[in-house]
């Protein structure tokens, strides 16, 4: 066996150490994503400012938006909408919700009490 070069040890240390970022969503140091979620400069910016925890939360919210709003991702307008909502989400601004969305901390009873059925049709 040969001697392991010093530079190689630095690479091993980097792989073994967990990378952290100051997450703009949660305003604290958290584990970073392992690769950019988007190509180009936008992906690098997210990699440096958004934690894996925040990105996982965004993926869950994005899935809800896609499913509940029945977004067709082959339509550019829908993809643009999701990117805009993603930036709002990470910047802690108000984001779009699914129709009929009930926040997890609210109970089903609260949702039922607040439901106002539409008036019956006039015949």
* Termini gap: 90 Å
Q: Tell me the number of strands.
A: 2
The helical percent reads 40-55%
What series of H and E elements makes up the topology?
HEEHHHH
Number of helices: 5
> Could you give me the name of the CATH homologous superfamily of the domain at 18-98?
Fe(II) trafficking protein YggX
Strand content: 5-15%
**Biggest sheet details:** 2 strands, antiparallel
Q: What would CATH call the class of the domain at 18-98?
A: Mainly Alpha
* Low-confidence sequence ranges: none
Supply Rg.
21 Å
Computed structural class:
mainly alpha
CATH fold description of the domain at 18-98:
YggX-like
Spatial order of the strands forming the largest sheet? 1-2
Structural shape:
elongated
Indicate the mean pLDDT. 84
For the record, the CATH architecture of the domain at 18-98 stands as Orthogonal Bundle
Structural topology:
Blueprint: H1 6-16, E1 20-23, E2 28-31, H2 40-49, H3 52-68, H4 76-90, H5 108-114
Antiparallel strand pairs: 1-2
Helix pairs in contact: 3-4
Could you walk me through the main structural features you see in this protein, from its secondary elements to its overall organization?
By secondary structure, the protein is mainly α. The protein has a domain at 18-98: Orthogonal Bundle (YggX-like). The protein contains five helices and two strands; from the N terminus they run αββαααα. It has helices spanning 6-16, 40-49, 52-68, 76-90, 108-114, and strands at 20-23, 28-31. Strand 1 and strand 2 form a beta hairpin. The mean pLDDT is 84.
